Amino acid sequence: MAKTRNNVGVTLVEMLVVVGIITLLAGFVVVLTSRMDHQSKERELAAVFVLLKSALIEYHEETGTFPVPDPNVAEEDYDEAEEHGELMYEKLDSVVASRQILRRVDASFIKGDASADDPLNVYDSWGMPVDYLYDPNTKNFPELRSAGPDEKFDTADDISSKDR
After folding, report:
1. By C-alpha distance, which of 112, 114, 88 is closest to 101?
2. Strand, coil or helix: 148
3. Which one of 72, 115, 125, 142 is at 20 to 30 Å from 39 when CA atoms are compared?
């Protein structure tokens, strides 16, 4: 009488299929996690923009105008975004009601040390300075702009307070 043997081992093909499925699932997890991280940073930035807009409104109610950029600094020059933001923060900090709103901005978005003569500034979720754009001739509400995830201004992923 002949005996039949049952192979209970795993073949190489079966092992490769399992590894392929696990790799595919891991890829989905990485993509979804990355997207959720990006959305979370955008929501954090939107909250900062809301606070800054409120501070700008308080500043306007107190002074009758919005902080006017330095005429020696080109407004549309994104290399000057840090200087634009420093000026905005300094002006908002000079008005009591605006200062109280600025204190509600999470400290992780504020960089600088006023005691060391290093001006304070607001930074976005990706560590880049928030740009402040205002043209006093148009009388429009100022625009706050973030370079976005690619950390470069004037690209498709820029985030603006006007979009919100």
Report:
1. 88
2. coil
3. 142
